[in-house]
């Protein structure tokens, strides 16, 4: 890359390599030296955004999940979205009941290896695939049964399409969680979906807010505010606290982009959003995803425009080389060797694990959970984890009736001091240092399975890092700005007071103020004595200077 190469150049280069036209749904993500995730901004220099030395490690993945993935025009686009959702399932972000989990895994199996063949697929062949963070032998048998009896004859493209149609109906479809805490200090995970704003606590959805109900989003430091206006003019402000100011800013920017993409009718409606107030400069941000023809100047296309543009695509469907891709992280091809389960086979027999049997632990039906005006502290937390020991000592036991993404043992790229859904159990165990985090990696399939592991030690108590020093500078500038504004206001009030008491201006405004009893009392009881005192002191100083 040239030093001044913009993110748009890199993104276009990658989409050209993949022969991808419906590119507005995708983005490039990276992790900075402070372990904070970022989306690459296409209008800025790539090198300046990295804040690290080359080679740069980035990940091409879905940024805006399609509202209806089955309605995508081209098969290559559906395949890349399929890879992303398959990875979400593997990392425990996509919650579902047992029957749905078995069906989704069977679709993956059919797409990977085709029809069941007794000569090639011996008993227990489904156990060689890792579809979920953990799963039982009973679920493996159910997956194999569906694959054998129900999916025979389906092509990879058909299986992937059916997978997308099923995944899109699940409540946590499109969730990319941001770890936070509510006002009561309880761990929560905020996410933006094609349908609205979601708050998860444990494995329960405590809030769902449609995009047309979100009136404003802003942040100050580590605090994130969501302003909601519901029916009957009911207005609510939800407050959450991110682990770091950078994580909070990333959360705010993701919210601004998602709301613009899914809510607006035209890109010309996109406006620059500011988080500033009277005393703090704040940040300004504008949705600029993919700068393309047909979009308003300086901003990206919204979902409706993307669908209209996709309908106009007329070309021969590009060839998809599924077999030539790197084996899937979530379910590698048998021809590339089996993937070891996260739990040893000899120990899995003693583990009582299942995917959620229904969505009873989630609140209400999809896209209809009401916002509660009460404190977030009364939100129900996930299953108790006090008895859960470190995974190196014994295997976690998940209740039969619920499956939580927090129980996943697989890492995901998060901020260094934050906890992702699948790492929440470490908090209960009081793990002191050395948490495993997943770094966005370029070694893998084109869509989302290109992420390696980043192992980061807990920071020591050394000097301030670049990010911390920047935050200190911002704080000092904010304090200085506050002092200057205060002094300026006091100076203006002093000038107004002098004009009222000493000038001969006889305008109606000043006359009305002077005739009020309060002003007359202030003038004779306080201002006149204070003026005489100042005059006396001033004469004393002048006489002292003359004498010397």
Could you characterize the architecture of this molecule?
By secondary structure, the chain is α+β, with helices and mostly antiparallel strands. Among the domains are: 162 residues, Acyl-CoA Binding Protein (Up-down Bundle), CATH 1.20.80; 134 residues, Pleckstrin-homology domain (PH domain)/Phosphotyrosine-binding domain (PTB) (PH-domain like, Roll); 61 residues, no CATH class. Helix content is 34%, strand content 14%. Strand 1 and strand 2 form a beta hairpin. The longest helix is centred in the C-terminal third of the chain and has 37 residues. It starts with 6 loop residues before the first helix and ends with a helix.
Low-pLDDT residue spans: 293-298, 324-462
Share of residues in strands: 5-15%
Number of helices: 13
The overall strand count is 14
* SSE class: alpha+beta
The largest sheet has its strands arranged as 4-5-6-7
Distance between the termini: 74 Å
User: Portion of residues in helices?
Assistant: 25-40%
